[in-house]
Amino acid sequence: MYPPLQAVLFDLDGVLVHSPLDLPAIKKELFGDASIFIIEGIEALPEHERDEKNDILRRRELEAAAKATLDPAVHELFDWLESKSLKRGIITRNSREVVELIVKNHDVDFGAIVAREDAPPKPDPGAVHAVCEILGVEPEASVMVGDFHFDIEAGKNAGCRTVFLETEKFKHLEPVADARIKSLGQLKGVLGNWLEN
Ligand SMILES: [Mg+2]
Q1: How far, in Å, is the centroid of ligand 1 from the Cα of 15?
Q2: What is the whole-number distance in angstroms between the Cα of residue 11 and the centre of ligand 1?
Q3: Of the four listed, 37, 130, 162, 167, which is most buried by Cβ atoms within 10 Å?
Q4: How many A from CA of 197 to the centre of ligand 1?
Q5: Residue 151 placed within a domain
Q6: Measured distance CA(194)–CA(191) in Å, rounded
Q7: Are residues 56 and 91 both part of a single domain?
Q8: How far apart are the CA of 160 and the centre of ligand 1, in A?
């Protein structure tokens, strides 16, 4: 039902990169105990408050990005994707500045990058469409890999296959994805199956 796979789209945090970014702590610093998503919460504020909160968020994100590590499976996985002629890209709610810092610190090529300045935040499918357009592939020929239900919803809303990576933080989530894996290293097995069938 899907056309042959041509591209793999990744969420960044918790999937390719592990950082001490503590979103609940940042949320508390910005909004107290309000139950709100950070980016959407900031967007809803009057302009002067928005700038102030954005500055705090930017500082906290850069601090965490400076300490980020690549998942140990990344390099081998990217080599394997290249050996199978699969393109790659990332879709992240991080800022482009944060992504660029990680790229520089780890000398890694994530492929096409769609950061939060570039498209509406997941679960909106806009970012998936944007990264597919950069890569020159259809969403139906792509797979979205993420560790949060927004990643899976964004992928499905765009028409992609989806793979949910179960992490300690979000293992209670049960999004309806085409596959569920417990480590990034297991992705090759899933993709290999799809390439053969
Ligand atoms: Mg994530």
Answers
A1: 6
A2: 6
A3: 162
A4: 28
A5: yes
A6: 5
A7: no
A8: 17
CA of 86 to the centre of ligand 1 (A): 21
Query: What letter would DSSP give residue 182?
Result: S
Examine the pLDDT at 68 and tell me if it is beyond 90: yes
Q: Are residues 38 and 59 in the same domain?
A: yes
Assign residue 177 the CATH number of its domain: 3.40.50.1000
Mark whether 57 and 151 lie in a shared domain.
Answer: no
* DSSP character string of 88-135: EEEE-SS-HHHHHHHHHHHT---SEEE-TTTSPPTTSTHHHHHHHHHH
* CA dist., res. 41 & res. 50, Å (int): 9
- Average of per-residue pLDDT values in the chain: 94
Q: What is the pTM of this model?
A: 0.90
Spacing, Cα 1 to ligand 1 middle (Å)? 28
More confident residue, 88 or 21: 88
> What residues does 161 pair with on adjacent strands?
143
User: Which residues form the domain of 36?
Assistant: 23-66
Number of domains in the chain: 2
The predicted structure's pLDDT at residue 185: 97
Distance from Cα 13 to the centre of ligand 1, integer Å: 4
